[in-house]
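Sequence design from tokenized structure. All designs in this work follow the same two-part layout: the structure record, then the generated sequence. An example of the structure record is given first.
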């Protein structure tokens, strides 16, 4: 976004831009103040209102990675990338299926737990939320969020979802953390590690789970492997939950994002799907 567009949008929105130093900017609108790095100025101008919609404070410093929000009656530590997705993603996963008391929910790619905490309120003490998050840093924040809100109906699993039980290379990148192949390289020190992955079908069998009402999956491209396991090994168990699978992720081996491939696999099995939510594309089953 060029400087003219940024100035124009900020003028329309009534946002004042003030340089703090060569790298940091202050955005103000009435009593609200946002401190940020210049590199994300465009994003912050566009999402200024979203950031403060759920914030606990009128002053947020985004040069620090995390801050607290109030969402679904919970105090949650998270980051800018997650907050700007609450309205466009978190609250849109259930447009075709409304969670209810007693539901069993799987949150694949739990990140900091925003969706799981929201779902835990809706399913209540009679329901459960199984939350998978493989990133070691994200998982610690997730665990802290569950503990400080005294949540007892969320079960945390520090593993990735795939179609094989194995150890995989993993790129730690906050909101974009993902499984990577042996050819993947990065100059970011300490960003590569190994993590365990498990087929969801194996977890279900090990835990003797016979009922799942809803699965939300946002697993950075690994939805291809999840769907493969789901169709081959979960459907035959007679478990047929509603699904919302984030499928905007680009896969180099497909040469495109994952939505069309996922829809194709379901249709081959006679299962109707909807592809929707343009801002956070999902395959809904």
């Amino acid at each position: 976004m060029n400087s003219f567009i940024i100035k124009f949008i900020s003028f329309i929105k009534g946002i004042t831009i003030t340089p703090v130093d060569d790298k940091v900017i202050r955005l103000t609108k009435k009593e609200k103040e946002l401190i940020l790095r210049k590199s994300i100025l465009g994003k912050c101008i566009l999402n200024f209102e979203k950031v403060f919609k759920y914030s606990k404070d009128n002053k947020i410093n985004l040069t620090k990675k995390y801050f607290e929000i109030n969402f679904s009656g919970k105090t949650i530590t998270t980051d800018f990338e997650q907050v700007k997705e609450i309205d466009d993603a978190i609250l849109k996963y259930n447009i075709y299926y409304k969670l209810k008391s007693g539901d069993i929910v799987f949150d694949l790619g739990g990140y900091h737990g925003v969706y799981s905490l929201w779902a835990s309120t809706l399913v209540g003490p009679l329901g459960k939320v199984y939350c998978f998050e493989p990133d070691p840093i994200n998982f610690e924040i997730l665990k802290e969020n569950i503990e400080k809100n005294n949540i007892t109906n969320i079960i945390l699993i520090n593993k990735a979802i795939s179609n094989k039980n194995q150890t995989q290379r993993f790129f730690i990148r906050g909101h974009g953390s993902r499984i990577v192949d042996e050819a993947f390289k990065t100059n970011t020190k300490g960003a590569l590690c190994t993590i365990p992955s498990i087929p969801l079908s194996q977890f279900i069998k090990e835990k003797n789970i016979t009922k799942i009402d809803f699965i939300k999956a946002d697993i950075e491209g690994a939805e291809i492997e999840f769907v493969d396991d789901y169709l081959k090994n979960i459907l035959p168990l007679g478990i047929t939950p509603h699904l919302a699978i984030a499928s905007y992720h680009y896969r180099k081996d497909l040469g495109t994002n994952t939505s069309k491939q996922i829809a194709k696999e379901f249709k081959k099995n006679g299962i109707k799907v909807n592809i929707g939510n343009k801002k956070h594309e999902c395959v809904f089953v």
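The CA atoms of residues 7 and 17 lie 8 Å apart. We note this feature because it recurs in several other targets discussed in the main text.
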